């Protein structure tokens, strides 16, 4: 069971690392080159479901070299190769495996080394898109021979025979990916005018289709030439990386049997692909019309800045809404997000929701009318209309009238710690706010429906009422501060409450989250300790804390409707990135004191574990006076992707130094490393019951 856990975790980690691998290639060159992205866009079909483009530069390439250096000897390459080797064998997979290993051999030397090794253009652009269902990547090269030599070397060392074809008078190098059940797919490489085009091709398509895929001919209708540039300006994206997913093109591809994507899948699947049903054909026009109102999800990087050991990364995505009537109504829902919800203050965690209660019923009623009166021919949509006509959202006004003028709710927590002087043994520093045009009305409602506030008259002059005077076991205050009904306890929260007095209430958003990973990690640890005092297992909370504090960051998310649709902006700030400890295999070649976290949230000594270079390990535990070993276990160990796996154990146990040894059955063990420091790390073992270990180097 433990082995099964490790394999499952390893596969998950492999997939995550593959994504990270792709990101590294994206940042350092594979997907961000060509001297003119405008010329590349001319060959992107307008019906593509996915597009990603970017232009690289030297600063971007070298900015994460310190993190890349940690890839050396960390064991990821070996496990990646092992997992690739477990897949269905193919010529293409052998070549891919070689390239993956080659990447890990080079990547730790940094971005410039990668560019030179693969012959990439430092100032080049690149694009990734779908030609129907087939992926295409176009990447600018600085040195064609360097890249070609590498591919030839990969083929020679893996025994893969590279195919050679001609498409549109140009040489195409291919390697077989799939050849099964009559389906033959190949990965093709073509270099023309210092641009590498890599794409998947099928044996069941014409040379004309392949010419378009390898940018030898333009599609009948290309992606609008200025769309990528316009997206960058509209959403403040960096040229380094931004793109979109076209929901409208996806709908067309699925529902239109004459679409290129549908024809390509039909050619591959043949009779195994079911025909579109009459109901689907009937609904096509209605569904496509609805999706055209939300045609794209755009995404991209807004800022990427490295200053010394600190790194800032801003990115955003937006669901575009083109129906002016619908967007106009949705924008009325925007509420108020207070300014304290940002990652630059002392908050450990803050959350805010901004919704105009006064607009909620009218907006939903308007949207309800637009949908129930729309002209549909699709049977499922007609049934949905009929059901919705029975549900009039105007009834919501009965409930929203109770909170008239409400425009926002927020909460933030700064600290939680043990306090012997408190009646409950805990000291909080937290705040909660309700924002309204009529906070006095909210205060009256709260006094009527919240038990702890019953009978309390909250002054309208801004002065606070201490709930401890009414029997609450802590000093907690409620007050009306400007347009806000506020409840708070603690010094920092009191400061925020006073700042709200002069804060202008505007329609500035719909959701916000602020996180300081270090503070939240400490807070989580404190909650775990307090919970343990009440008989609760703190392992999960302690594990979360270790993960949060391993790489300190601040995160601020702001979301809401605007004139383009629904937009989400993420801002992340990483401090002391170079101090982030990514455990490598060589770091484990030592002896460690091992402790485990018990149910009382206390660390208990478990023994000493030693990892040897040859892959052998030993774990020993001594009696209470350390006079002899009473437990010994020898095993084989492996490490990769932050996972330690121990197999083939030979273990023996005795109750005292004078007792006979008893053999124990083989037990596999695996754990995931968290919160690594210079001389210690945590390791989480989960075989259905979680145990957190702490390893400290001797």
Describe the structure.
This protein is 33% helix and 31% strand. It is of the alpha+beta class and 698 residues long. The protein has three domains: 299 residues, no CATH class; 183 residues, no CATH class; 113 residues, Lipocalin (Beta Barrel), CATH 2.40.128.280. The strands form two sheets. It has a 19-stranded antiparallel beta sheet, sandwiched between helices. Strands 20-21-22-23-24-26-27-28 form an eight-stranded antiparallel beta barrel. Strand 2 and strand 3 form a beta hairpin. The chain is globular and about 90 Å long. Keywords: Signal.
Poorly predicted ranges: 1-34
Helix content: 25-40%
Strands, count: 28
Tally of contiguous helical segments? 21
Structural class: alpha+beta
End-to-end Cα distance, whole Å, is 31 Å
Shape: globular
Mean pLDDT: 85
Number of domains: 3
How large, in whole angstroms, is the Cα Rg? 31 Å
Largest sheet: 19 strands, antiparallel
- Quote the beta fraction: 25-35%
Concise structural overview:
This protein is an alpha+beta fold and 698 residues long. It has 21 helices and 28 strands.
Characteristics:
698 residues; eight-stranded antiparallel beta barrel; single chain; Lipocalin; alpha+beta; signal; 28 strands; globular; 21 helices
Layout of SSEs?
Blueprint: H1 2-28, H2 37-41, E1 50-55, H3 58-62, H4 65-68, H5 76-85, H6 91-107, H7 111-118, E2 125-131, E3 134-140, H8 144-158, E4 163-167, E5 170-180, E6 183-192, E7 195-202, H9 207-213, H10 227-235, E8 242-246, H11 247-255, H12 260-269, H13 278-291, E9 296-307, E10 310-320, H14 324-331, E11 349-353, H15 357-372, H16 379-389, H17 397-400, E12 406-418, E13 426-436, H18 439-449, E14 465-466, E15 477-481, E16 484-489, H19 491-499, E17 511-516, H20 517-533, H21 539-550, E18 553-561, E19 565-574, E20 591-597, E21 603-611, E22 616-622, E23 629-640, E24 643-653, E25 662-664, E26 669-674, E27 680-686, E28 690-697
Antiparallel strand pairs: 1-2, 1-8, 2-3, 3-7, 4-5, 5-6, 6-7, 8-9, 9-10, 10-19, 11-12, 11-17, 12-13, 13-16, 14-15, 15-16, 17-18, 18-19, 20-21, 20-28, 21-22, 22-23, 23-24, 24-25, 24-26, 26-27, 27-28
Helix pairs in contact: 1-5, 5-6, 6-8, 11-13, 20-21
Signal peptide: 1-22
Keywords: Signal
